Amino acid sequence: MRVITDVDRCVGAGQCVLTEPSVFDQREEDGTVLLLTDEVRGETAERVREATHLCPAQALSTSD
Amino acid sequence: MERRCPYAPPAEYDRIRAENPVTQVELPTGKRAWVLTRHEDVRAMLADPRFSSDRANPRFPTLVDNTPMRAAFKPSLISMDPPEHGPARRAVVGEFTVRRMEALRPRIQEIVDQAIDDLLAAGEPADLVTHLSLPVPSLVICELLGVPYADHEFFQLHSGRLLSRDTSPEDRRHSVDQLTSYLDKLIVEKEAAPTDDLLGRQILKQREEDNVDHEALVSLAFLLLIAGHETTANMISLGVVALIEHPEQLALLREDPGVTLSAVEELLRYFTIAEVATTRLAVEDVEIGGVRIKAGEGVIGLSNAANHDPAVYERPDELDIARGARNHVAFGFGAHQCLGQNLARMELQIVFDTLFRRVPSLRIAKPVDELDYKRNATVYGLHSLPVTWS
What we know:
Chain B: It comes from Amycolatopsis albispora. Chain B: One of its GO terms (molecular function) is heme binding. Chain B: Involved in the coupling of aromatic side chains of the heptapeptide of vancomycin. Chain B: Keywords: Heme, Iron, Metal-binding, Monooxygenase, Oxidoreductase. Chain A: InterPro entries: 3Fe4S_ferredoxin (IPR001080), Fe-S_cluster_ET (IPR051269). Chain A is of the alpha+beta class. Chain A has two helices and four strands, in the order E-H-E-E-H-E. Chain A has a single domain (2-63), classed as Alpha-Beta Plaits. Chain A has helices at residues 15-19, 42-54; strands spanning 2-5, 24-26, 33-35, 60-63. In chain A, the strands form two sheets. In chain A, strands 1-4 form a two-stranded antiparallel sheet. In chain A, strand 2 and strand 3 (33-35) form a beta hairpin. Chain A is globular, with a radius of gyration of 10 Å. Chain B is α+β, with helices and mostly antiparallel strands. Chain B has one domain (11-388): CATH 1.10.630.10. Chain B is built from 15 helices and twelve strands. In chain B, strand 10 (372-373) and strand 11 form a beta hairpin. Chain B is globular.
């Protein structure tokens, strides 16, 4: 599964980092999302889906 | 509407959600507004840019007369819409990232330990609000912002007044003026000699970007100072009461400190102390939950009703610290979701872990229904909480 981010929408709430820190981080300067990897599988993919649902700015999406 | 028992949302919320989930109400100010009570509708509304946060708009459906706040200063983050909001939030959100909050953990632990020492030294019965709930978030926000903690009684007094619906418009104006002139003076000092704290760093950042705006900094400091005082303090007090009143839940927490994170989310959901912070004004016609809301109409996303929606939470009025309630809207949703949420999470987690480990016999010194609840405040909580421990 591919992870897609829309940095322009991101408001730096950090919900993604709390959910899956091996995939998401935040930029030091402005707190916006930083992808550590954009291909995920298995349980990691499940948590990425959860992060997508929790993201308040709806800045995350996935594609198969 | 008053809470039941005294934690659960008013019974009317369940009735409204079941019978007429998007409905119009009359507010104390005489204005009318839609209330949304379903989790799905509240999330949809808060994520939709066709709803404005501009509290200076005279049509904004405020519960109290907010003219003194509007007159006092520039709009802060909570009142901004795009395109101003994004860049303004990004200018400060780097101070609140998960990583930055994690770096504060050892210092927050020290502050919590010191506050518990003070509570124990005060002798029984002691007021948990005075010795723990208020000093912890107050010291943390003061150190983060670079505001002298020595002045804490002054901010606590005025932030309490601003968040009480019983405060008269004159007293509200007085509190706004007092806090604004205090912060104005403090920021003038920091502009002369920038300090290594959030406000000092914002000053340097403004200069670097050639975007110097003293008034915006005063209003940011005002927002963060108020938000940093009342919210976490009330969650500490209410959380302690709820955990003591649910001994089987407290036992789960004690057995496995790994559960604390999930317990914090559940307590945030269960109490949803800032239930009308999620109020907006429609700037275009929008359909929500099958109802057409017209441009110019106010909407209250009733987050406490949303967080007790049985479509999302089984047995919503039960406290279940293991339920994994992360999708709650207690911090709001959308572009304005609470800036300090990760700081609040960390403070609550450290307080509950440390308090129940260090003071295992902690009890409430009064019947729970006789405690002094903030029944008419913008942020729900407790004025005082007498506790004993031996």
